[in-house]
Design brief:
Blueprint: H1 2-27, H2 35-38, H3 42-45, H4 51-70, H5 72-77, E1 80-81, H6 82-95, H7 99-125, H8 135-144, H9 148-157, H10 159-182, H11 189-210, H12 224-232, H13 234-249, E2 253-254, H14 257-264, H15 268-293, H16 304-310, H17 315-331, H18 333-342, H19 344-394, H20 404-421
Parallel strand pairs: 1-2
Helix pairs in contact: 1-6, 1-7, 1-13, 4-6, 6-7, 8-14, 8-19, 9-10, 9-11, 9-19, 10-11, 11-19, 13-16, 13-17, 14-15, 15-16, 15-18, 15-19, 16-17, 19-20
């Protein structure tokens, strides 16, 4: 019990520090998490918008994302999505006039959100009918993830490419599974083989993407002033990176729902693979908006700072690794500008990867929600997930398709527990 309390306090304080530093970075217009807000931040120092106006805009574009997409995953797993803290920090840092006051509020916000999600999880577990095997919620998306590169190939190059990439993934997966079986791999050889297959197919797609060169690429001189501005803010960005990697190393922080699935099922290698895929998928948008605005992202190149944490359970090593990666980012900004302007294949691959991650997560979590709800409440539970999905689709997707199955499953778990307490079977 004491160890649990110690861990929870450490988690709350670490994520509180992340909230504090993220809020300071937003207040100083060093970094903001939301891509749509990042390009509007220069209006603040140019005097075109007040903090109050930009703060309202930040709240408007962030609150729906937090509630309808990001928050359900911490409530189901205890693993905080970085977007919950950093989007809140964006709003607080941009809106408040005092950097000291915004830092204190950012710290309090992050601690409060962390404590509230952990309290919810503990409350659900105390119900007479606690949730069943939660791994059932995550496993479909986890074992479907190795086909993500094949899905991206289909989005980027068409159906024929998608079919060939799927066949290639299956063949490489089977080959690695045989090899791992012979060498006595003790973890999860099926998933590990799938991740290797994803790596092979993904590497092929990256090579093809880099070979596509723009005919008359524009120069990168426009970015130079913005790059210098970002580099001057390294004293804030480097500690931020260290805290992010440290929190990820302890399984407290994730960058995307697919990473939550890996951490929640104790497959850190899968979470690391998702982080590297996220780097490909979000690199074009984050890199371009950052270089155009001169405002960076707390998470750096998404999500390799988190990946540094997934790679080790040692918090000191993870923190040092995150700090070093941020330094590498600051030194590589000119190269990033060249890639964005001269390699259109990389940009299109990134967009296809993002679409693939959304599709895979939506389908995988729906399947997981049905299976987990059936294990918790039988056919009625599974039917509730299907009904909730149908209603959500017919009413304009008030909750994102990725998060809806998780929200519905939490509802099933709570209702089943309360029904059991009331004497219903």
């Amino acid at each position: 019990m004491n160890a649990l309390l110690h861990s929870e306090w450490a988690k709350a304080l670490t994520l509180g520090l992340l909230g504090l530093l993220s809020t300071v970075a937003a207040h100083r217009t060093v970094a903001v998490y939301h891509d749509g807000l990042r390009t509007s931040v220069p209006e603040l120092w140019l005097g075109e918008k007040t903090r109050s106006e930009l703060g309202r805009y930040a709240y408007t574009i962030s609150i729906g994302y937090i509630l309808a997409y990001a928050l359900p995953f911490p409530l189901a797993s205890g693993v905080m999505l970085i977007s919950v803290i950093c989007l809140g920090a964006d709003v607080i840092g941009i809106r408040m006039n005092s950097v000291l006051a915004s830092a204190m509020v950012g710290f309090a916000f992050a601690v409060a959100v962390t404590a509230a999600t952990d309290l919810f999880i503990h409350g659900v577990r105390q119900l007479p009918t606690p949730p069943g095997d939660l791994s059932l919620l995550w496993r479909p998306v986890l074992y479907g993830f190795p086909f993500l590169a094949a899905l991206a190939a289909g989005y980027q190059h068409g159906t024929r490419w998608g079919v060939m990439a799927t066949a290639g993934t299956a063949a490489v997966w089977a080959a690695f599974r045989v090899v791992l079986g012979h060498v006595g791999h003790t973890a999860d050889p099926t998933l590990t083989a799938g991740l290797w297959a994803l790596a092979v197919v993904g590497a092929v797609l990256l090579v093809i993407a880099f070979r596509e060169v723009a005919e008359s690429p524009p120069g990168t001189e426009f970015f130079e002033d913005k790059i210098r501005r970002i580099r001057r803010k390294g004293l804030i960005l480097v500690p931020l990176a260290a805290v992010i990697s440290l929190a990820a190393s302890q399984g407290w922080l994730a960058g995307a729902p697919l990473q939550v699935a890996g951490i929640a099922t104790d497959h850190r290698d899968a979470a690391l693979a998702v982080a590297l895929v996220s780097l490909v998928g979000f690199f074009p948008t984050q890199g371009m908006t950052g270089l155009v605005s001169g405002v960076w992202n707390q998470d750096g190149y998404p999500d390799w700072l988190l990946g540094a944490g997934y790679a080790t359970a040692n918090p000191a090593i993870a923190a040092c690794g995150g700090a070093v990666l941020m330094m590498v980012e600051l030194l590589s900004l000119t190269w990033v500008g060249k890639v964005m302007t001269r390699r259109p294949g990389v940009v299109s691959l990134g967009l296809a990867t993002r679409d693939s991650m959304d599709t895979l997560a939506a389908v995988g979590f729906l399947a997981g929600g049905v299976i987990a709800a059936f294990a918790t409440a039988g056919a009625a539970g599974a039917g509730a997930i299907v009904v909730a999905h149908t209603v959500n689709e017919n009413h304009g997707r008030r909750i994102t398709p990725t998060a809806l199955p998780v929200v519905a499953y939490l509802g099933v778990a709570v209702v089943a527990g309360l029904a059991r307490r009331a004497g219903w079977r």
